[in-house]
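REVIEWER CHECKLIST
Item 1: Sequence provided? yes
Item 2: Single chain? yes
Item 3: Sequence as submitted:
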Amino acid sequence: DVVLDLLNNTRVGIATPLSVLPFDLITPDEVERVYGVTKKELSRWGKRKRNAPPHFRLNKHTVRYSQSSFGKWLKDNSI
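Item 4: Structure as written out by the authors:
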């Protein structure tokens, strides 16, 4: 319950609160490797006020992405 509360309180770009823990959380390094998106792009996108990629900003230096949510967001927002 504590972890779920933490994720719900730190979610960005995710409209509805989580009811279960995501099973596919990945680091920015893994996003870079899987999707070919640089960490600089992730950082820039994460600071957006609107249409930010779905992620969890756990603290100033720790960000996690749900692989399935990020993949869907990237597909929906790619030209």
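Item 5: Key structural point noted by reviewer: The chain has a mean pLDDT of 94.
Item 6: Recommendation: ____
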